[in-house]
C-alpha cells in the first residue's frame, strides 16, 4: 500500500485531451499516492466521463481549499493559466503545468514566485510530451559541457512532413489528414508556424544553458508556405525536410536559438523520426551525441509526463535551475551566419534578404531559389515580414560565428 505521508490531493484545471488522459493514467498507476479531488472547467453543461460533483467552474474551490496541496494546470489559455499558476504558488501550493506558451512567456516571474513562496513548479510535460528532456538537462547534464540541443519538438508538423515525404501528399492534404486524426488543430498555425517548438526551445534553453530568453528574440519560421517546388528540391538533393528547433553554443560565452525547417541528411538521427514522434539530440564535450525519442503529443503520452511530475513532487523534487546558480551564464546571440535555401516568386521578395554569399541559384518563370549564407540578425529583423511573403526558407547546418564578429 502507498504511504499516506506524501499523499497528493490534486486540484485539476482543464479536462481536455491531456486532463482526461492524466485522469486515466492515474487510475492505472497503483503505486502513485495521488487523487484528483476537484476539476475546474469552463463549461459545466458539457457532458463528461466523470460524475458532475467532481467538477466546478469556480477556481476558488481549488485555490482556497487547504486540503488540496497540488495544482495541476492543463488549460489552453496562456494568460489565464499564468493567473492560476501564480495564485497557486502565492498560496504555497505546488504546481504541475503543461502550458509551454505560458511558461516561456513568464519564466522570470515563475522562478521568482517559487523562491518567494517555497512552493515548486514542475513542467516536464510542456516540452516533448513523454520525453523527459527538461529533467535530463536539469539533472544529468548539470554541467557546462553542453554544446547543443537539436530536436523535432512538435509532433503535428512532423506528422505532416512524414505524409509529404513518405506518401507524396501535398501540404494541404497532409494538414487535413493531421486534423482528421486529431494531431493538428482546426487552426494549425501554432504547430506549422513553429510557435509551439519556439516555446519549448525557450524552456530548454533555461535548463540547458541557464539563460532566460524572450520568445521575441528568437528567429522562427515554419512550414506553412511549403510547396511542391521545395519538396522536389529536397528529394532531388537527398534531403528530408524536418521542422527543427535548435540551441547551439557558439563559443564558451554565447549561444543561439532558432526554429526553422531543416534539410536533414540520412546520417542525422532526426532524419528517421516520423509521424507524431519527437526526437531530441543532446550534444556535449566528451560525451558527444545522445538521442532521445518518443511520442511528443497525445493525451496518454503527455498525461504520463504530467504523472511523472506529480510523482516527483511526492518525493519533494523541485527544479534548482543549477546552470543559473553554479555556472557563468552564456548570453543569447543572433550574431551568427547560417546556410539556407530560399525559394521565392519575385525579386521584390528576394530583395529583403541580404545574403553574405550565394552558392547556387535557379531561376524560372514560375519560381526561383538560391542557397547561400545569411546573417541571422538580418532574418530576425524581417521575421514578421517573412510571414507575409510568398517565400519558403530552410537551413542546412548549425549556425556558425559571424565571420565579421570573429575578426573584430
Label this structure with key terms.
Rossmann fold, alpha/beta, seven-stranded mixed beta sheet, 408 residues, six-stranded parallel beta sheet, Dihydrodipicolinate Reductase, domain 2, disordered C terminus, 35% helix
How does this structure look, described?
This protein is an alpha/beta fold and 408 residues long. The chain folds into 2 domains: 8-122, Rossmann fold; 134-295 and 329-406, Dihydrodipicolinate Reductase, domain 2, CATH 3.30.360.10. 35% of the residues lie in helices and 26% in strands. It has helices at residues 17-27, 60-63, 78-90, 100-105, 107-117, 133-140, 155-167, 171-180, 189-192, 195-209, 228-237, 299-314, 322-326, 347-350, 376-381, 383-386, 403-406, and strands at 8-13, 34-40, 55-56, 70-73, 94-97, 121-122, 146-152, 219-220, 240-251, 254-264, 277-284, 288-295, 331-332, 336-344, 355-363, 368-375, 391-395, 400-401. Strand 4 (70-73), helix 3 (78-90) and strand 5 (94-97) form a beta-alpha-beta unit. The chain starts with 7 loop residues before the first strand and ends with a helix.
Structure summarized in a few sentences:
With 408 residues, the chain is an alpha/beta fold.
Task: Set down the secondary structure blueprint.
Elements (H helix, E strand, L loop, with lengths): L7 E6 L3 H11 L6 E7 L14 E2 L3 H4 L6 E4 L4 H13 L3 E4 L2 H6 L1 H11 L3 E2 L10 H8 L5 E7 L2 H13 L3 H10 L8 H4 L2 H15 L9 E2 L7 H10 L2 E12 L2 E11 L12 E8 L3 E8 L3 H16 L7 H5 L4 E2 L3 E9 L2 H4 L4 E9 L4 E8 H6 L1 H4 L4 E5 L4 E2 L1 H4 L2
Parallel strand pairs: 1-2, 1-4, 2-3, 4-5, 5-6, 8-10, 10-13
Antiparallel strand pairs: 7-9, 7-11, 9-10, 11-12, 14-16, 14-17, 14-18, 15-16
Helix pairs in contact: 1-12, 6-10, 7-8
Amino acid at each position: 500500500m502507498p504511504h499516506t505521508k506524501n499523499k497528493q490531493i490534486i486540484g485539476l484545471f482543464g479536462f481536455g485531451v491531456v486532463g482526461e488522459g492524466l485522469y486515466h493514467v492515474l487510475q492505472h498507476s497503483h503505486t502513485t499516492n495521488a487523487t484528483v479531488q476537484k476539476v475546474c472547467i469552463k463549461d459545466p453543461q458539457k457532458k463528461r466521463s466523470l460524475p458532475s460533483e467532481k467538477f466546478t467552474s469556480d477556481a476558488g474551490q481549488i485555490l482556497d481549499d487547504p486540503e488540496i496541496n497540488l495544482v495541476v494546470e492543463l488549460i489552453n489559455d496562456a494568460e489565464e493559466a499564468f493567473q492560476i499558476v501564480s495564485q497557486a504558488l502565492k498560496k504555497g501550493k505546488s504546481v504541475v503545468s503543461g502550458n509551454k506558451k505560458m511558461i516561456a512567456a513568464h519564466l522570470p516571474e515563475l522562478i521568482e514566485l517559487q523562491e518567494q513562496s517555497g512552493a515548486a513548479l514542475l513542467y516536464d510535460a510542456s516540452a516533448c510530451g513523454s520525453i523527459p528532456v527538461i529533467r535530463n538537462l536539469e539533472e544529468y547534464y548539470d554541467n557546462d559541457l553542453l554544446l547543443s540541443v537539436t530536436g523535432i519538438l512538435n509532433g503535428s508538423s512532423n506528422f505532416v512532413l512524414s505524409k509529404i515525404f513518405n506518401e507524396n501528399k501535398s501540404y494541404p492534404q497532409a494538414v487535413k489528414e493531421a486534423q482528421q486524426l486529431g494531431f493538428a488543430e482546426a487552426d494549425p498555425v501554432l504547430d506549422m508556424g513553429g510557435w509551439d517548438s519556439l516555446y519549448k526551445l525557450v524552456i530548454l534553453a533555461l535548463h540547458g544553458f541557464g539563460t532566460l530568453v524572450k520568445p521575441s528574440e528568437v528567429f522562427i519560421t515554419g512550414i506553412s508556405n511549403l510547396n511542391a517546388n521545395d519538396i522536389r528540391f529536397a528529394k532531388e538533393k537527398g534531403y528530408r525536410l524536418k521542422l527543427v528547433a535548435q540551441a547551439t553554443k557558439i563559443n564558451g560565452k554565447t549561444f543561439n536559438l532558432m526554429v526553422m525547417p531543416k534539410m536533414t541528411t540520412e546520417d542525422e538521427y532526426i532524419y528517421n523520426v516520423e509521424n507524431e514522434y519527437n526526437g531530441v539530440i543532446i550534444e556535449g564535450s566528451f560525451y558527444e551525441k545522445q538521442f532521445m525519442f518518443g511520442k511528443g503529443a497525445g493525451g496518454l503520452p503527455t498525461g504520463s509526463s504530467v504523472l511523472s511530475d506529480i510523482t516527483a513532487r511526492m518525493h519533494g523534487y523541485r527544479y534548482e535551475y543549477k546552470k543559473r546558480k553554479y555556472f557563468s551564464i552564456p548570453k543569447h546571440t543572433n550574431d551568427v551566419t547560417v546556410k539556407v535555401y530560399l525559394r521565392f516568386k519575385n525579386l521584390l521578395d528576394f530583395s529583403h534578404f541580404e545574403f553574405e554569399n550565394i552558392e547556387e541559384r535557379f531561376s524560372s518563370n514560375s519560381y526561383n531559389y538560391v542557397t547561400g549564407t545569411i546573417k541571422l540578425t538580418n532574418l530576425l529583423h524581417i521575421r514578421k515580414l517573412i510571414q507575409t511573403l510568398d517565400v519558403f526558407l530552410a537551413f542546412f547546418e548549425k549556425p556558425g560565428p559571424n565571420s565579421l564578429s570573429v575578426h573584430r
